[in-house]
Fold:
Amino acid sequence: MSLIYAEQLTKKYDDGDTVVTALDRATLSITSGEFIAVTGRSGSGKSTLFHQLGLIDTPTSGSLAVLGTNALALTERQKTAFRLKHIGYIFQDYALIPTLTAIENVALPLLMAGMSKHRAYAQAAQTLETVGLAERLKHLPSQLSGGQQQRVSIARAVSHAPALILADEPTANLDHESSLSILAIFRRLTEQGITVVMITHENEYAKLTDRVITLFDGAVTEDVKN
Ligand SMILES: Nc1ncnc2c1ncn2[C@@H]1O[C@H](COP(=O)(O)OP(=O)(O)OP(=O)(O)O)[C@@H](O)[C@H]1O
Ligand SMILES: [Mg+2]
Structure:
C-alpha cells in the first residue's frame, strides 16, 4: 500500500531579499513496511523534507498524500490530529522532558491524546519493555545513557502505534554499538508493518536499510534499493 506519495514537492524560504529553495520538486513514493535512509550533505534539504512528510510544515507547491489523505487540504488542527494518530517523530537530541521519568515521557502523548492514566502507563511500560528498558521505567533522562535515552524517545514515538516513523539523525550522538541497537529496533518495527524513514550521514547505516534516497540542493538525485 502507498503510504506516502509526494509529487514535485517544493519548499522555498523567503527572508525578504533572498529566496532559498530548500526542497526542489521532490517526487517520491513510499510503501508500508519499508525501511528507508535519506542521505545528502548538510543543507541538502533532508530535515525540510521530513517537516513536509511529517505535516509539521506546509510546502510551497507540489502535492503530498500521506495514507491516502491529501495533506495539503488539512487545517492546522486536522494536521495535528493526523500527526498524533499516524506519525512518530524521533530527533537527534532525543528531545525528552528532563523532569519526567522514562515512563512519564512515553505516557505523556498518550495522555494528551485522551487515553486514561491507567491505560497510558500500562502501554508506556509495555513499549519501554520492547526497546529493552523494562528495568529503567522510573529513571530520569539524566540517569540514562545516550543510547537508552534514544530508546525512550523511540518508545515515545511508537507507543501510539503510528504507521510512519520519521527519525532525523537518530544515531548522530551515539556510539557504534548503541547505533546498531537502534537500527535493529527500527528493523523490527518495519517487520511489524511500520514504515521507518531515517536521515543519516553514515553510509554504513544507510546500507542496513532497504532503500537509500539521496538529496542534493533540495532535489532527489538518487533513489536506489539496497
Ligand atoms: N526556517 C528556515 N528559514 C530559512 N532557510 C531555511 C529554514 N530551514 C532550512 N533552511 C535552509 O534550507 C536548506 C535546507 O536545510 P535543511 O535543514 O533541510 O538541511 P539538512 O539536509 O537537514 O542539513 P543537515 O544535514 O545540516 O541537518 C538550507 O540551506 C537551510 O539553510
Ligand atoms: Mg537536518
